[in-house]
Amino acid sequence: MIEEAKTEEPVKKTLLKGLTPKELKDFFAAVGEKRFRGDQLFEWVYGHMVENFDEMTTLPNYLRKKLNLYCELNSLSLVTTQTSPRSGTRKYLFKTFDNQLIESVIIPEPKRITLCISTQVGCPLDCQFCATGLMGYRRNLSPAEILDQFLLASKEFGRNKISNIVYMGMGEPLLNYANTFKSLQIFAEEKIRDISLKRVTVSTAGIAPKIIELADSGLKVKIAFSLHSMFEETRSKIMPINNKYSLAENLEAVKYYAKQTDTRITFEYIMLKDLNDRSDDLNALIKLCKSIPCKINVIPFNSIAHMNPTGFAKELEPSQKFVIDEFVKTLRDNNITVIVRYTQGDDIAAACGQLANKTISEPLAKAEVN
Protein backbone atom coordinates (compact mmCIF):
# COMPACT_ATOMS: atom_id res chain seq x y z
CA MET A 1 0.00 0.00 0.00
CA ILE A 2 1.41 3.36 -0.97
CA GLU A 3 1.08 5.96 1.75
CA GLU A 4 -0.17 9.35 0.74
CA ALA A 5 2.62 11.88 0.75
CA LYS A 6 2.44 14.27 3.68
CA THR A 7 2.70 17.96 2.99
CA GLU A 8 4.45 19.98 5.65
CA GLU A 9 2.56 22.93 7.03
CA PRO A 10 4.28 26.26 6.47
CA VAL A 11 6.27 27.53 9.42
CA LYS A 12 4.43 30.26 11.30
CA LYS A 13 6.85 33.14 11.29
CA THR A 14 7.53 35.40 14.27
CA LEU A 15 6.61 39.04 13.66
CA LEU A 16 9.47 41.20 14.94
CA LYS A 17 8.00 44.60 14.16
CA GLY A 18 6.06 45.99 17.10
CA LEU A 19 8.50 44.63 19.69
CA THR A 20 10.31 47.03 22.04
CA PRO A 21 14.14 47.07 22.08
CA LYS A 22 14.12 44.96 25.25
CA GLU A 23 11.77 42.41 23.70
CA LEU A 24 13.95 42.19 20.61
CA LYS A 25 17.07 41.65 22.73
CA ASP A 26 15.24 38.96 24.70
CA PHE A 27 14.19 37.33 21.43
CA PHE A 28 17.73 37.13 20.08
CA ALA A 29 19.05 35.82 23.40
CA ALA A 30 16.35 33.12 23.37
CA VAL A 31 17.48 31.88 19.94
CA GLY A 32 21.15 31.79 20.94
CA GLU A 33 22.26 35.13 19.47
CA LYS A 34 23.90 38.11 21.12
CA ARG A 35 21.46 40.53 22.75
CA PHE A 36 22.86 43.55 20.88
CA ARG A 37 21.37 42.12 17.68
CA GLY A 38 18.03 43.39 18.99
CA ASP A 39 19.31 46.97 19.01
CA GLN A 40 20.70 46.52 15.51
CA LEU A 41 17.40 45.23 14.15
CA PHE A 42 15.45 48.00 15.86
CA GLU A 43 17.75 50.58 14.25
CA TRP A 44 17.26 49.05 10.80
CA VAL A 45 13.47 48.85 11.08
CA TYR A 46 12.76 52.26 12.60
CA GLY A 47 15.94 54.27 12.00
CA HIS A 48 16.43 53.23 8.37
CA MET A 49 12.88 51.95 7.67
CA VAL A 50 14.05 48.85 5.81
CA GLU A 51 11.39 46.26 4.98
CA ASN A 52 13.45 43.09 4.61
CA PHE A 53 16.26 41.37 6.46
CA ASP A 54 18.60 41.22 3.44
CA GLU A 55 19.19 44.98 3.69
CA MET A 56 20.40 44.71 7.29
CA THR A 57 24.09 44.61 6.41
CA THR A 58 25.36 44.84 10.00
CA LEU A 59 23.82 41.42 10.65
CA PRO A 60 25.90 38.41 9.55
CA ASN A 61 24.73 36.61 6.43
CA TYR A 62 23.81 33.39 8.28
CA LEU A 63 21.57 35.35 10.66
CA ARG A 64 19.80 37.16 7.84
CA LYS A 65 19.06 33.80 6.21
CA LYS A 66 17.72 32.45 9.51
CA LEU A 67 15.52 35.51 9.99
CA ASN A 68 14.11 35.15 6.47
CA LEU A 69 13.15 31.54 7.24
CA TYR A 70 11.57 32.04 10.65
CA CYS A 71 10.66 35.71 11.06
CA GLU A 72 8.87 38.52 9.25
CA LEU A 73 8.65 42.29 9.47
CA ASN A 74 5.62 43.62 7.63
CA SER A 75 2.11 43.43 9.08
CA LEU A 76 0.35 45.55 6.44
CA SER A 77 0.39 45.89 2.67
CA LEU A 78 -0.56 49.05 0.81
CA VAL A 79 -3.61 48.49 -1.41
CA THR A 80 -4.32 51.95 -2.85
CA THR A 81 -3.72 55.64 -2.31
CA GLN A 82 -6.13 58.44 -3.13
CA THR A 83 -5.20 62.11 -3.24
CA SER A 84 -7.60 65.04 -3.03
CA PRO A 85 -7.07 67.39 -5.99
CA ARG A 86 -8.41 70.24 -3.85
CA SER A 87 -6.33 69.97 -0.67
CA GLY A 88 -3.61 67.42 -1.33
CA THR A 89 -4.97 65.23 1.48
CA ARG A 90 -3.87 61.65 0.83
CA LYS A 91 -5.78 58.57 1.97
CA TYR A 92 -4.14 55.16 2.30
CA LEU A 93 -5.99 51.85 2.20
CA PHE A 94 -4.01 49.09 3.92
CA LYS A 95 -4.69 45.35 4.10
CA THR A 96 -3.79 43.23 7.12
CA PHE A 97 -2.55 39.62 7.18
CA ASP A 98 -6.14 38.41 7.66
CA ASN A 99 -7.50 40.58 4.82
CA GLN A 100 -9.00 43.32 6.97
CA LEU A 101 -8.96 46.82 5.49
CA ILE A 102 -8.01 49.98 7.37
CA GLU A 103 -7.44 53.59 6.36
CA SER A 104 -4.90 56.27 7.27
CA VAL A 105 -4.74 59.88 6.09
CA ILE A 106 -1.97 62.41 5.51
CA ILE A 107 -3.11 65.99 6.01
CA PRO A 108 -0.73 68.60 4.53
CA GLU A 109 -0.76 72.02 6.19
CA PRO A 110 1.50 75.05 5.75
CA LYS A 111 3.55 74.45 8.92
CA ARG A 112 3.23 70.70 9.36
CA ILE A 113 2.22 67.43 7.76
CA THR A 114 0.05 65.23 9.93
CA LEU A 115 -0.58 61.50 9.64
CA CYS A 116 -3.88 60.27 11.07
CA ILE A 117 -3.60 56.58 12.01
CA SER A 118 -6.09 53.89 13.01
CA THR A 119 -6.03 51.61 16.06
CA GLN A 120 -8.96 49.27 15.32
CA VAL A 121 -10.68 47.71 12.34
CA GLY A 122 -13.94 49.61 12.61
CA CYS A 123 -15.09 50.96 15.97
CA PRO A 124 -17.54 49.73 18.65
CA LEU A 125 -18.58 53.15 19.97
CA ASP A 126 -21.28 54.07 17.43
CA CYS A 127 -20.76 57.84 17.63
CA GLN A 128 -23.59 59.17 15.49
CA PHE A 129 -21.48 61.68 13.56
CA CYS A 130 -18.77 59.18 12.61
CA ALA A 131 -18.71 56.90 9.56
CA THR A 132 -16.33 54.45 11.24
CA GLY A 133 -18.90 53.76 13.94
CA LEU A 134 -21.47 52.89 11.29
CA MET A 135 -19.28 50.08 9.91
CA GLY A 136 -19.15 48.34 13.29
CA TYR A 137 -16.14 46.65 14.89
CA ARG A 138 -13.99 43.68 13.88
CA ARG A 139 -10.80 43.64 15.95
CA ASN A 140 -7.98 45.60 17.53
CA LEU A 141 -4.85 46.41 15.56
CA SER A 142 -1.54 45.07 16.83
CA PRO A 143 1.36 47.40 17.72
CA ALA A 144 3.00 46.38 14.42
CA GLU A 145 -0.11 47.31 12.44
CA ILE A 146 -0.29 50.70 14.17
CA LEU A 147 3.40 51.40 13.54
CA ASP A 148 3.33 50.10 9.96
CA GLN A 149 0.86 52.81 8.99
CA PHE A 150 3.55 55.39 9.81
CA LEU A 151 6.42 53.43 8.27
CA LEU A 152 4.65 52.59 5.00
CA ALA A 153 3.13 56.06 4.63
CA SER A 154 6.55 57.62 5.27
CA LYS A 155 8.10 55.47 2.57
CA GLU A 156 5.38 56.36 0.04
CA PHE A 157 5.04 60.05 0.95
CA GLY A 158 8.70 60.75 1.65
CA ARG A 159 11.11 60.25 4.53
CA ASN A 160 11.20 63.01 7.17
CA LYS A 161 8.14 64.73 5.71
CA ILE A 162 5.56 63.62 8.30
CA SER A 163 5.96 65.90 11.31
CA ASN A 164 2.95 64.96 13.45
CA ILE A 165 0.94 61.84 14.24
CA VAL A 166 -2.61 61.78 15.54
CA TYR A 167 -4.34 58.61 16.76
CA MET A 168 -7.63 59.81 15.30
CA GLY A 169 -8.33 57.33 12.52
CA MET A 170 -10.56 54.27 12.73
CA GLY A 171 -11.27 53.02 16.23
CA GLU A 172 -10.96 54.15 19.85
CA PRO A 173 -7.27 54.04 20.89
CA LEU A 174 -7.97 53.61 24.60
CA LEU A 175 -10.16 50.55 23.99
CA ASN A 176 -7.02 49.04 22.46
CA TYR A 177 -4.94 50.39 25.30
CA ALA A 178 -2.16 47.79 25.54
CA ASN A 179 -1.32 47.89 21.83
CA THR A 180 -1.73 51.66 21.58
CA PHE A 181 0.56 52.12 24.59
CA LYS A 182 3.19 49.77 23.20
CA SER A 183 3.25 51.66 19.90
CA LEU A 184 3.72 54.90 21.85
CA GLN A 185 6.60 53.35 23.77
CA ILE A 186 8.29 52.55 20.47
CA PHE A 187 7.65 56.04 19.08
CA ALA A 188 9.31 57.37 22.24
CA GLU A 189 12.60 55.60 21.46
CA GLU A 190 15.44 57.89 20.38
CA LYS A 191 16.24 55.68 17.39
CA ILE A 192 12.95 56.74 15.75
CA ARG A 193 14.39 60.02 14.54
CA ASP A 194 11.60 60.76 12.05
CA ILE A 195 9.06 61.63 14.74
CA SER A 196 9.06 62.94 18.31
CA LEU A 197 6.60 61.83 20.98
CA LYS A 198 6.00 65.53 21.61
CA ARG A 199 4.32 65.61 18.19
CA VAL A 200 2.03 62.65 18.83
CA THR A 201 -1.59 63.10 19.96
CA VAL A 202 -3.95 60.38 21.15
CA SER A 203 -7.63 61.12 20.62
CA THR A 204 -10.31 59.53 22.78
CA ALA A 205 -14.09 59.59 22.99
CA GLY A 206 -13.72 59.25 26.73
CA ILE A 207 -12.55 56.06 28.47
CA ALA A 208 -11.93 57.73 31.83
CA PRO A 209 -9.99 54.94 33.64
CA LYS A 210 -7.60 54.59 30.71
CA ILE A 211 -7.03 58.36 30.55
CA ILE A 212 -5.88 58.18 34.17
CA GLU A 213 -3.75 55.10 33.46
CA LEU A 214 -2.05 56.87 30.56
CA ALA A 215 -1.48 59.92 32.76
CA ASP A 216 0.36 57.74 35.30
CA SER A 217 2.34 55.81 32.67
CA GLY A 218 5.24 58.24 32.40
CA LEU A 219 4.73 58.76 28.66
CA LYS A 220 4.16 62.45 28.04
CA VAL A 221 1.88 62.31 25.02
CA LYS A 222 -0.80 64.84 24.08
CA ILE A 223 -4.46 64.01 24.61
CA ALA A 224 -7.38 65.17 22.44
CA PHE A 225 -10.76 64.62 24.07
CA SER A 226 -13.85 64.33 21.84
CA LEU A 227 -16.15 66.67 23.74
CA HIS A 228 -18.87 67.75 21.27
CA SER A 229 -21.34 68.76 23.99
CA MET A 230 -21.17 70.12 27.53
CA PHE A 231 -24.48 68.49 28.47
CA GLU A 232 -24.75 64.86 29.53
CA GLU A 233 -28.06 64.15 27.79
CA THR A 234 -26.99 65.62 24.46
CA ARG A 235 -23.58 63.95 24.58
CA SER A 236 -25.16 60.56 25.33
CA LYS A 237 -27.43 61.00 22.34
CA ILE A 238 -24.59 61.60 19.90
CA MET A 239 -21.97 59.47 21.74
CA PRO A 240 -23.43 56.39 23.47
CA ILE A 241 -20.15 55.77 25.34
CA ASN A 242 -21.21 58.69 27.55
CA ASN A 243 -23.77 56.36 29.16
CA LYS A 244 -20.90 54.24 30.52
CA TYR A 245 -18.31 56.93 31.22
CA SER A 246 -20.09 60.20 31.89
CA LEU A 247 -18.87 63.60 30.81
CA ALA A 248 -18.35 64.57 34.45
CA GLU A 249 -16.14 61.51 35.04
CA ASN A 250 -14.15 62.16 31.88
CA LEU A 251 -13.61 65.84 32.64
CA GLU A 252 -12.15 64.88 36.02
CA ALA A 253 -9.88 62.42 34.21
CA VAL A 254 -8.61 64.95 31.66
CA LYS A 255 -8.05 67.54 34.40
CA TYR A 256 -5.95 64.95 36.20
CA TYR A 257 -4.12 64.21 32.94
CA ALA A 258 -3.31 67.89 32.36
CA LYS A 259 -1.95 68.26 35.92
CA GLN A 260 -0.04 64.98 35.94
CA THR A 261 1.66 65.50 32.55
CA ASP A 262 1.83 69.31 32.51
CA THR A 263 0.23 69.40 29.07
CA ARG A 264 -2.70 71.24 27.52
CA ILE A 265 -5.80 69.24 26.69
CA THR A 266 -7.27 69.56 23.20
CA PHE A 267 -11.05 69.53 23.16
CA GLU A 268 -12.51 68.41 19.84
CA TYR A 269 -15.85 70.00 19.06
CA ILE A 270 -17.83 69.05 15.96
CA MET A 271 -20.41 71.75 15.21
CA LEU A 272 -23.91 70.26 14.85
CA LYS A 273 -26.90 72.41 13.95
CA ASP A 274 -29.28 73.04 16.89
CA LEU A 275 -27.51 70.41 19.01
CA ASN A 276 -24.34 72.01 20.34
CA ASP A 277 -24.13 75.45 18.72
CA ARG A 278 -26.51 77.40 20.99
CA SER A 279 -25.68 80.12 23.50
CA ASP A 280 -26.03 77.67 26.43
CA ASP A 281 -23.47 75.39 24.78
CA LEU A 282 -21.11 78.30 24.25
CA ASN A 283 -21.36 79.57 27.82
CA ALA A 284 -20.78 76.11 29.29
CA LEU A 285 -17.76 75.62 27.04
CA ILE A 286 -16.26 78.96 28.08
CA LYS A 287 -16.68 78.00 31.74
CA LEU A 288 -14.90 74.68 31.16
CA CYS A 289 -11.99 76.28 29.34
CA LYS A 290 -11.37 78.66 32.23
CA SER A 291 -10.94 75.68 34.57
CA ILE A 292 -8.30 73.70 32.64
CA PRO A 293 -5.32 74.48 30.38
CA CYS A 294 -6.67 73.68 26.93
CA LYS A 295 -7.32 74.61 23.35
CA ILE A 296 -10.36 73.83 21.19
CA ASN A 297 -10.45 72.26 17.76
CA VAL A 298 -13.70 73.44 16.19
CA ILE A 299 -14.66 71.04 13.40
CA PRO A 300 -17.44 71.66 10.88
CA PHE A 301 -19.51 68.47 10.59
CA ASN A 302 -18.51 66.38 7.58
CA SER A 303 -21.14 64.38 5.72
CA ILE A 304 -21.34 60.63 6.36
CA ALA A 305 -23.87 60.09 3.55
CA HIS A 306 -21.45 57.67 1.85
CA MET A 307 -22.30 55.18 4.63
CA ASN A 308 -26.07 55.52 4.14
CA PRO A 309 -26.82 56.36 7.79
CA THR A 310 -30.27 55.81 9.31
CA GLY A 311 -32.13 57.11 12.34
CA PHE A 312 -30.62 59.93 14.37
CA ALA A 313 -27.32 59.83 12.45
CA LYS A 314 -29.21 60.61 9.24
CA GLU A 315 -30.76 63.71 10.82
CA LEU A 316 -27.47 65.39 11.74
CA GLU A 317 -26.67 68.63 9.93
CA PRO A 318 -23.68 70.97 10.04
CA SER A 319 -23.98 74.30 11.80
CA GLN A 320 -24.22 77.22 9.41
CA LYS A 321 -20.97 79.03 8.70
CA PHE A 322 -22.05 82.30 10.28
CA VAL A 323 -22.98 80.41 13.45
CA ILE A 324 -19.55 78.74 13.55
CA ASP A 325 -17.84 82.07 12.93
CA GLU A 326 -19.70 83.76 15.79
CA PHE A 327 -19.11 80.77 18.08
CA VAL A 328 -15.37 80.90 17.41
CA LYS A 329 -15.19 84.69 17.79
CA THR A 330 -16.85 84.57 21.20
CA LEU A 331 -14.47 81.86 22.39
CA ARG A 332 -11.48 83.90 21.24
CA ASP A 333 -12.89 87.05 22.83
CA ASN A 334 -12.70 85.07 26.08
CA ASN A 335 -8.97 84.42 25.52
CA ILE A 336 -9.49 80.78 24.55
CA THR A 337 -7.20 79.26 21.92
CA VAL A 338 -9.32 78.00 19.04
CA ILE A 339 -8.28 76.25 15.85
CA VAL A 340 -10.91 75.77 13.17
CA ARG A 341 -10.31 72.48 11.37
CA TYR A 342 -11.66 73.43 7.99
CA THR A 343 -12.71 70.42 5.95
CA GLN A 344 -9.87 68.74 4.06
CA GLY A 345 -10.25 65.60 2.02
CA ASP A 346 -14.06 65.37 2.05
CA ASP A 347 -13.98 64.87 -1.72
CA ILE A 348 -12.27 61.49 -1.13
CA ALA A 349 -14.11 60.65 2.15
CA ALA A 350 -10.93 61.34 4.13
CA ALA A 351 -12.09 64.23 6.32
CA CYS A 352 -12.65 64.04 10.07
CA GLY A 353 -15.31 61.42 10.86
CA GLN A 354 -15.46 60.00 7.33
CA LEU A 355 -13.05 57.05 7.53
CA ALA A 356 -14.82 53.75 6.87
CA ASN A 357 -14.65 50.87 4.46
CA LYS A 358 -17.94 49.93 2.86
CA THR A 359 -16.62 46.59 1.59
CA ILE A 360 -17.00 45.17 5.09
CA SER A 361 -20.72 44.56 5.25
CA GLU A 362 -21.20 41.25 7.06
CA PRO A 363 -22.09 41.30 10.79
CA LEU A 364 -19.12 42.40 12.86
CA ALA A 365 -17.88 41.30 16.24
CA LYS A 366 -18.89 43.01 19.45
CA ALA A 367 -16.16 44.64 21.52
CA GLU A 368 -16.49 44.93 25.25
CA VAL A 369 -16.38 48.59 26.17
CA ASN A 370 -14.49 48.72 29.43
List keywords for this structure.
TIM Barrel, 370 residues, DNA polymerase, domain 1, 2 domains, 14 strands, alpha/beta, two-stranded parallel sheet, disordered N terminus, 10-stranded mixed sheet, 19% strand
Number of helices: 12
Order of helices and strands: EHHHEEEEEEHEHEHEHEHHEHEHHE
Span between N and C termini? Answer: 59 Å
The spatial strand order of the largest sheet comes to: 3-4-5-6-9-10-11-12-13-14
Q: Note poorly predicted spans.
A: 1-7, 359-368
Based on secondary structure, the structural category is alpha/beta
The radius of gyration is 22 Å
CATH class of the largest domain: Alpha Beta
Q: Provide the CATH architecture of the largest domain.
A: Alpha-Beta Barrel
Please count the beta strands (DSSP E, at least 2 residues each). 14
**Biggest pleated sheet:** 10 strands, mixed
The CATH superfamily of the largest domain bears the name Aldolase class I
Question: Which helices and strands occur, and which strands form pairs?
Answer:
Blueprint: E1 14-15, H1 21-30, H2 36-47, H3 61-70, E2 71-72, E3 76-83, E4 90-96, E5 101-108, E6 113-116, E7 120-122, H4 131-134, E8 137-140, H5 143-157, E9 164-167, H6 177-187, E10 200-204, H7 208-215, E11 222-226, H8 232-238, H9 247-261, E12 265-271, H10 279-289, E13 294-300, H11 311-315, H12 321-333, E14 338-340
Parallel strand pairs: 1-2, 6-9, 9-10, 10-11, 11-12, 12-13, 13-14
Antiparallel strand pairs: 3-4, 4-5, 5-6, 7-8
Helix pairs in contact: 1-2, 5-6, 7-9
